[in-house]
Amino acid sequence: MRLLTGFLIFLLILTACATPAPATPTEFTAPTPEAVTLDGTLENSLIVSTWRDGPKGNVLFPLDPASGTALSGYEPIALGYSSLPVFSPDRQTVAIVSFPDENTYNGDLLLIDLPTWKVRRLALELRGWVSGMAFSPNGQQLAIAHGDYHHKLTMVNIAQGVIMAQEESDTFISRLKFTQSSETLMLYKPSVNFTNGLSPDPPQVFLLDAQKLNTLWSAELEGVRDGMFPKDETITQPELYEPGNASYFTPALTFAPDRDTLYIVHADSEQLTTVDFRTQKVKTVNIQPKLSWFEQLLSLDAGVAHAKIADGTMKQTVISPDGQFLYVTGVSYASYKDQEGVWQVGQTPLGLEILQTSDGSRVERMETDATELSLSPDGRFLYLRHWGDEITLPWTEIFDTSSRKLIERKEAFYATPVLLMSGRFLLASTYVSPESKYAEQYHMSILQPSDLSVLADWVGPDFVYWPTP
Fold it and tell me: Has residue 194 got a pLDDT over 80?
């Protein structure tokens, strides 16, 4: 092997001058966001939801970000027991599945036309909590993954307001997205054994015909671990739920914004799996520092580096608007016994990694205690978050993707990019106030992304949910 490597090095040296290295993709760069001008109109309001006791359940309403109060003249829309809202591609419609009670029977589909603030209710009689929804790029279809112990995929014709196809699934669908043509649907399914909670088989991906929901292509993702796995493979009993007996792995998944591709950053190893639905191919590569051609050659003998995992790892990722980079963060959990013999759980943040989607190379790694992240709609800023605990307040670190540097840390702020009806974005935060002793009090804030100036700040008993872009 060393002789072969030496020979290859000699050949590459001879051709290095004649063959220029391929161009490295440049980082997406967006202009610094300008301050958003607010005028109290529906166009410059935020669409938010909160919980109300009684038959209304969740309610949806426009909020004036300058004051943090509901916009006058618009009646809140009762959603009942509902799923998370999904926006149509033109952001003119919000789709929500609504159930009359917590039993999740007889679910209706609510289609809310935002400019007119009118509701169209489709009595589809859906059953089971929604695990995912997606509009087709042309806005004509809506795919709904739902179910309890019986999982289903339902395709709705938006214009006609009817179910055009419905198929049962052997397990729940955690991710779904239409292809760019709107003619096919991409699915990701983890494997779960509902008898013992284990994930004995690899996750699967499917490409379905959007009209009939029949399978056009599928593949098992060998090597991807998503779910619960025994540390001792001979153990198959409920003791798995006892501390120290099992590991939980949640890989980071995201669909590309510009192509029919799914990226999966493994939770238990330094690997990236790319699922190309257009070519119907699956490729897995090792995540390594981005190397020169010479360094790549010298690493031919290197083995696969696996992460040291204790009781589980959860990873999250977002993708740049041009589809070139993945931003990945996460946390590992380890159970241990304290001095009194009581099981405790410690956590170790994994830092921030920037991966190049074309080859899985790591172009940057940064230490941070953040455990979650979001990307601004323009791709300029990463918001690295930590939830805090009973004593410490949450915080957000702001990372500039163009300079690849941390530029700000905001205490007592759990940053979520939120879009106004006009399409401009602000930053919003909701967290439980540590001073809450007898009843939970939530602290809400809205900030300008340009200079982090506070637009509104208030404390109340109602948790405000901010639908994200």
Answer: no
